[in-house]
Each structure stands twice: as structure tokens, then as C-alpha cells.
């Protein structure tokens, strides 16, 4: 299938061209347009797994409870346009059986129907880092679309890399991470405004976003008018 990433930058979106027999999956609510021959089905499962429990785990991972699946209905090519909620970039990752990918909370956008979507428990690392207790794990063969708040940068890690919490988009499972301080000491970390960071180690790829949606929301929230009761 052909996937076009349109308007790279603050307003990125994806246009997925489907041939007869092909399917594509996205988080529910991601579609903004589709050709008239596209059938849209809503489910909690992907590749026959997941169900209600899988949907609940995805909610804890800051993802949507439901998936939307797309396929053509009349034997002719069709297309579906997908876009994330946050303003920012969309990036395609070609997943292979050799390397699984881990999506941080809210970054999963869509994927080929042959990819398996599971959840991975992060334990206390997720709790203390401020990230979700569950991450989304993607494996198999096919295209994966992730989204970010701001610009996406890809880094090849061979050793260690420190990333501020809230800026992780996705990383290959060959990397491991631990909760760490950003500065030379915990006091320096807090005084610098960085606080807790994630220290990745090993060999693999990581995608990071230039802006932190949680920090942006914390800054914007007090400036909004109060809701009327």
C-alpha cells in the first residue's frame, strides 16, 4: 500500500491508498476523510486479539479504547486520510519481525493490518517517570504511523541517551531504559527545571518529540476561562 505523509511539520497528516484486499487500522477518531468506497469498522481487537481487556489496557496507555479498520468495498482502489489530535509531525516506521517497536503514551496513530498491537507493562518505571503504566508494543511486518507534538527527531543510540520525560514518541525494543536524573544531582535536576529523565541504553533507534504536550497543557490551562456550571 502507498502512504503519503502530507504537510510535514505542525499540521502533518497521512493519506493511505488502499488496493482491493488490503486493510489498514487506526485509533478511533483519526479519520478525517475517506473515499466513498471505503468501509469503516470499529473494533477493540487487532489481528483477532485484544478484546475488552486489550481496550482497557490501551486506555491506561493513554490510547483509544477502539480501533477503526478500513478496506475498499467495490474492488476499486480507495483512500483514507488520517490525522492525530495534537499539532505536530507524523512519521512512518517500517516494522520488521527482527525488531519490535514500543510506542509511548498517545503516540500510536495507525498501522498495517498485519501488525500485532499489544500492551507492555512498565511497572514502577512508568509510574515514577510520569509516563503511562502501559506502553503500546507493535510487532510483525508492515507500516506503523506514529504522531508527535511538535517535530519528530530520530536518533541512533549506541550506548546511552538521556531523554526528558514526555518527549519520547517510540523506540525499538532493543533499547532498555531506566528512570534517571537529568543533571549531576537530583537537586541540580530540579533547579534546572528538568527533574526526572529517562536514560536509554543499548543499540537501536528512538524517536523524540520537540515539545511536551503535558507541559503545554499545564501552561495553557490556567489561562483558559473557567467553565460555567
Structural description of this entry:
The chain is mainly β. It has a single domain, classed as 4-Layer Sandwich (Double-stranded beta-helix), CATH 3.60.160.10. Helix content is 13%, strand content 47%. It has 4 helices and 17 strands. It has helices at residues 51-60, 124-129, 186-191, 213-220, and strands spanning 2-6, 13-18, 24-27, 31-34, 38-43, 67-72, 78-82, 90-95, 101-103, 108-112, 116-121, 134-139, 142-147, 152-164, 168-172, 175-181, 196-209. The strands form 3 sheets. Strands 9, 11, 12, 14, 15, 16 and 17 form a 7-stranded antiparallel β-sheet that branches. Strands 5-6-3-10-13-8 form a 6-stranded antiparallel β-sheet, with no helix packed on it. A hairpin with a 6-residue loop joins strand 1 and strand 2 (13-18).
Total count of domains: 1
* Secondary structural class: mainly beta
Uncertain spans: 55-61
Write down the CATH class: Alpha Beta
Total beta-strand segments: 17
SS element count, helices: 4
**How many strands, which pairing sense, and closed or not: the largest β-sheet?**
7 strands, antiparallel
Q: Spell out the CATH superfamily.
A: Mitochondrial biogenesis AIM24
The end-to-end span amounts to 49 Å
- Coarse shape: globular
C-alpha Rg, in Å? Answer: 18 Å
Average residue-wise pLDDT: 81
The residue fraction in helices comes out at: 10-25%
**CATH overall fold name:** Double-stranded beta-helix
Which CATH architecture is right?
Answer: 4-Layer Sandwich
**Which percent range describes the beta-strand content?**
over 45%
Sketch the topology as an H/E string, one letter per element. EEEEEHEEEEEEHEEEEEHEH
Amino acid at each position: 500500500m502507498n502512504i503519503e505523509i502530507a504537510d510535514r511539520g505542525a499540521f502533518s497528516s497521512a493519506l493511505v491508498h488502499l488496493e482491493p484486499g488490503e486493510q489498514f487500522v487506526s485509533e478511533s477518531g483519526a479519520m478525517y476523510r475517506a473515499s466513498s468506497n471505503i468501509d469503516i469498522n470499529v473494533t477493540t481487537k487487532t489481528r483477532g486479539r485484544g478484546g475488552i481487556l486489550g481496550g482497557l489496557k490501551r486506555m491506561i496507555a493513554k490510547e483509544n479504547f477502539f480501533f477503526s479498520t478500513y478496506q475498499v468495498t467495490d474492488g476499486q482502489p480507495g483512500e483514507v486520510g488520517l490525522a492525530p489530535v495534537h499539532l505536530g509531525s507524523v512519521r512512518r516506521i517500517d516494522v520488521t519481525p527482527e525488531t519490535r517497536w514500543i510506542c509511548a503514551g498517545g503516540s500510536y496513530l495507525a498501522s498495517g493490518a498485519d501488525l500485532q498491537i499489544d500492551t507492555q507493562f512498565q511497572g514502577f518505571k512508568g509510574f515514577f517517570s510520569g509516563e503511562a503504566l502501559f506502553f503500546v508494543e507493535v510487532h510483525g511486518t508492515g507500516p506503523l504511523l506514529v504522531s508527535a507534538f511538535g517535530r519528530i527527531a530520530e536518533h541512533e543510540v549506541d550506548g546511552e541517551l538521556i531523554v526528558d520525560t514526555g518527549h519520547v514518541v517510540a523506540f525499538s525494543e532493543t533499547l532498555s531504559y531506566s528512570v534517571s536524573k537529568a543533571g549531576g544531582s537530583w537537586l541540580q535536576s530540579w533547579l534546572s527545571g528538568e527533574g526526572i529523565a529517562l536514560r536509554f541504553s543499548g543499540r537501536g533507534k528512538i524517536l523524540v518529540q520537540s515539545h511536551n504536550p503535558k507541559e503545554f497543557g499545564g501552561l495553557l490551562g490556567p489561562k483558559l476561562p473557567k467553565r460555567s456550571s
